[in-house]
User: Fold this.
Amino acid sequence: MCQTIIGQTDSILSFKDCKNCPEMVIIPSGSVYIGSYEEEIGRKRGERNRIKATISSPFAMAKTEVTLRQFRVFMEETKYKSNVPIRNGEPLIGCNYYDGKSYGYIAEHNWENPGYPQREDAPVVCVSWSDAKAYADWLSKKTGRNYRVPSTVEFEYASRAGSSAPWFWGTNPEKACEYANIGDRTFGDKYPQRPTFPCDDGYVYTSSVGKFKSNPFGLYDMVGNAWEWTNDCFHIDLSNAPVDGTSLEDNTNNECIWRTPKGGSWISGVAWGRAAVRSRDGADYKSFMLGFRVAATVEKK
Assistant:
């Protein structure tokens, strides 16, 4: 039987539904401006224009990214088999990897071996959106609480924690290494051709979760460490996209095959590490820089 443990630190409420479940932080309701202005530093094509998002009811977000240890428990209990994506009629076996020159799938790489040393308390990577959803569904069945992959609005709302700046800590990229494992000078020493933040966080690849300062909501690594899956189908046009925390679903008869990672990773420089940034990847795509965290309801079923 799983037991909910409720804790409170500096007015931040959290709970944990079982020994190996993620610790969940209760995110308050409220409003914040999401997206970016055209003149924002590093703005990318396809980002959402600045708009007010309002979350009407509290929800729970995992305090950290799902770790390798936590994902291992899921794999061992369920014997889950991940989907293999298909490209041009051929299966993509393994996980996408960057060798300093180009990207490509490596057949031997997977969630247990992403191509670099991985700690048990580091974020699990080389997992797809489908894997993240399966993990959330397993937690729901195991605990009696509704877990899910967070929507893009939930993720950005939780990441910003009330801030409308490019990062929740403000506008200074030199402060990034206090709060995030991102593409910094340490990373740049190994990959000198990549753009970096003007600071040192001490890590080339992923770090253990929770190593850096949290945001005001008590969440860690909402910027950097690993890109994180969100539940939204990827749409170019966001003019009618929800701003209430619900997911953007597919409004055609086609299957939603593209999803929307957010948050940046250990490889991300200034432009890709901002709160407004979004990416686009296939639902079964796997990358050595891409993981996830879960969201949940505050009340159990």
Notes: Helices lie at 68-78, 129-143, 152-160, 176-179, 185-190.
